[in-house]
Design brief:
397 residues, mainly alpha, 0% strand
Length: 397
């Protein structure tokens, strides 16, 4: 009896274990693809300027990337359940690697726009798949905590990627930078071949084709909230390096480093807090910090304020994003986890894309500082929607 009890206890512990070999591999693969992506994040606007592009074109080039990813996420979500995790993930990684490497031979804005659209397809496939793969590998009871740890892999890349990209672009040429970024994506591709993927589960019911099945309705609430928050990211990714340069403020690379470090700090407690008390414990405090960060960027008198804004943005976004993702996944049926991830990341893409394209017009008409005032108002909108959901659903949303 005692042996049987010990065996059952050991089995239960193993079932609740997060850090398995496959989970470590997906985290490493995610780190390298995000590192390659984050290296291009602050350098693409500089590359567009070198090609003779305007603020509106910078916003457009960011926007076409995110909208391209958005359009293909629903297909990726379906393919995850029909063709399997490995097919979708490795296809996305392959497209990403080839598109980023192609930037090394680009000499015109038109060609860059086309390849940014191609990169968006690869990004849409790979990030939709990787979130679903991580979900498969994390015990349901520890999903908030596990998604927080998984998010750390992207945060570590963010800690080094933008600063590394900005440093390298001052030493080497843009073509060399893009080849390095593509090579990092190829490392992710190699790691992806070593993962044991969840097999596709056959449905108990005969599948029927549903027209316009492009989102998972159970994930709509967190996705809408995320949209208004990620609008801010469009302004930071596309225009903050240019804004800081215009104001004569140095340290934009340090901004991204501090942002990433505080994202990682948030992962140490926000996921567990979500698992214990739900999204109500992290959403409003997190969004309040994001609003404060945006208002500091409106002011932005010196590097110190830039760094404080980075810390607040990192803590806020790092708390809110994994909580919303866990909320979206937990509400979905087992055979709809892929579509829930697709819906969630589609809202992320839409927010970034709308933000970048809108802020390109705002920057041209009102200046860069106005971007961050509009960003703060967007996050306040998300907070108001969340509060209305709490009251409508008896504080359970």
């Amino acid at each position: 009896m005692a042996d049987n009890a010990r065996t059952q206890s050991k089995t239960a512990i193993n079932e609740d274990k997060i850090w398995t070999k496959d989970f470590a591999l997906i985290c490493m693969a995610n780190f390298f693809i995000f590192l390659g992506f984050q290296m291009t994040l602050p350098t693409i606007p500089l590359f567009v300027q070198e090609l003779g592009g305007s603020d509106q074109l910078i916003g457009l080039i960011t926007g076409v990337f995110t909208f391209s990813a958005l359009l293909f996420r629903p297909y990726a979500g379906h393919a995850l359940e029909s063709k399997g995790r490995q097919f979708v993930y490795m296809t996305g990684l392959g497209i990403f690697v080839l598109s980023v490497a192609s930037y090394s031979i680009i000499t015109s804005i038109g060609f860059l726009i086309v390849m940014r659209m191609v990169q968006g397809v690869g990004w849409g496939f790979s990030t939709t798949a990787t979130g679903t793969i991580a979900t498969d590998l994390i015990p349901p009871k520890r999903r908030g905590e596990g998604m927080g740890y998984f998010g750390l892999s992207g945060n570590l890349a963010l800690a080094f990627g933008p600063a590394l990209g900005l440093t390298l672009v001052g030493i080497i040429s843009f073509p060399q930078l893009f080849l390095i970024a593509g090579s990092l994506g190829f490392v992710s591709f190699l790691l992806s071949t070593r993962i044991r993927y969840k097999k596709i589960e056959a449905s108990q019911h005969k599948a029927t084709t549903v027209k316009f099945d492009i989102f998972e309705k159970s994930a709509i609430k967190p996705a809408i909230l995320l949209f208004f928050i990620t609008v801010t990211f469009g302004g930071i990714a596309s225009f903050l390096p240019l804004y800081a340069t215009q104001k004569g403020i140095e340290g934009i690379g340090i901004y991204f480093l501090i942002y990433a470090l505080f994202l990682m700090v948030s992962r140490t407690f926000a996921g567990r807090l979500y698992d214990a008390k739900g999204h109500i414990a992290v959403f409003l405090p997190g969004t309040a910090m994001i609003v404060a960060a945006m208002l500091l960027l409106v002011w932005l008198p010196n590097s110190l304020i830039l760094y404080v804004a980075a810390a607040l943005y990192g803590l806020g976004f790092g708390s809110v994003q994994p909580a919303l993702q866990a909320w979206a996944i937990n509400e979905a049926a087992t055979n709809r986890k892929g579509m829930a991830n697709a819906t969630f990341f589609a809202s992320f893409d839409l927010g970034v894309g709308v933000g970048a394209m809108t802020f390109g017009l705002i920057a041209a008409s009102f200046g860069y500082s106005f971007i961050y005032l509009v960003s703060a108002l967007s996050v306040v909108t998300s907070m108001l929607i969340y509060i209305s959901l709490l009251f409508k659903n008896g504080r359970t949303a």
